[in-house]
Amino acid sequence: MTPKPDRKEGFIIFAFARSGSTTLHHILNLHPEINMAFEPFNKGMSMEGKGYYFEVKDEKSLYQVLGKIYSKHQGIKHLNNQLSEKHNKLMLKRNYKIIFLWRKNYLQKTISHIISRNAKVWFNERERIFQHKFAPLQVEEVHTYLNIYKDRLNNYYGYLTDNQIDFFPLTYEELYDPALPVSQKLDKINEVFEYLGYGKVTEKAVIKQAESYLDPENSKLNNELTYFKIPNIVEIEKIIGSKENGHLFVPGFKKPRHYNLRAFWIGFSMMTSALIRDLGQLAHRVAGNVGVFLKKHSPILYHFLKNKM
């Protein structure tokens, strides 16, 4: 077994898309000793003005980039499709501590991925999914995506075990299954902290924030209601859903009556909340700009108003 590194050498959340890695990243960042880098090899993002993906050319440059990242961060959140298979495996054998995060329900993972791709929504903006008009899915397309996921999962899991690389296996279901009590989910989070070499989280404020992240209403992007945005989703479930692939719906689940009205109302409510939030932020910026203007051009009026507020 590869020796466990000191925690200062860093750790990786090595995950697959739609497996809850963003929420796990937020939760681990709650620990006072942890500052994580978020997807530093994502081509669509940049950290500190650096496009790290484009700096990786070979093994040497990969390790140089990782050295830069870990000089400022204790861990990184990384998705398997953000680097080549070769570079992923070079990173995994680097003796970092690895949280290997995956989703046991292949079908839910696949449909969630397709929904996000089609609606171009990857984070918790469920109102945009309800506003998007989806076309029926091709069964062959779903099969293709599902099998690609299974092959990649088995490939990387096999690489870790075959090379006796130490890692912490963690599933989406262990953290986000709504049937599990939150206390059990928090115990699993503390297992992760202990594996990484950090103490358990005991501060009430931190625990409360972690519980909020673990609440599906706050962090889960897709559920039965968003699945029904796909016109032929029942057909997809009947053809592909199985014990091996998983199911989209719990036994006995039926499409809610007045679903279209309910989906519209959820989308409208979320959109209204986002609008109110944005207007509040705009008002705050406008007030700040007015204050700067008065302070510069009319300091007497500025100090008069400031003392009155």
Task: Tell me about this structure.
The protein is an alpha/beta fold and 309 residues long. It has 2 domains: 7-252, 3-Layer(aba) Sandwich (Rossmann fold), CATH 3.40.50; 270-308. It is 54% helix and 7% strand. It is built from 14 helices and 5 strands. The chain has a 5-stranded parallel sheet. Helix 2 (59-70) links the parallel strand 2 (36-38) and strand 3 (75-79). Helix 4 crosses helix 6 (139-162). The chain is globular and about 75 Å long.
Structural class: alpha/beta
Radius of gyration: 23 Å
Shape: globular
Give the spatial strand order of the biggest sheet: 2-3-1-4-5
What is the CATH-assigned architecture of the largest domain? 3-Layer(aba) Sandwich
* Helix-residue proportion: 40-55%
How many H/I helices?
14
Distance between the termini: 64 Å
* Name of the level-1 CATH class of the largest domain: Alpha Beta
Tell me the β content. 5-15%
Instruction: Using the coordinates shown, work out and report the CATH topology of the largest domain.
Output: Rossmann fold
Unreliable sequence segments: 1-8
Task: Give the strand tally.
Answer: 5
Helix/strand order: EHEHEHEHHHEHHHHHHHH
* Average predicted local confidence, pLDDT: 85
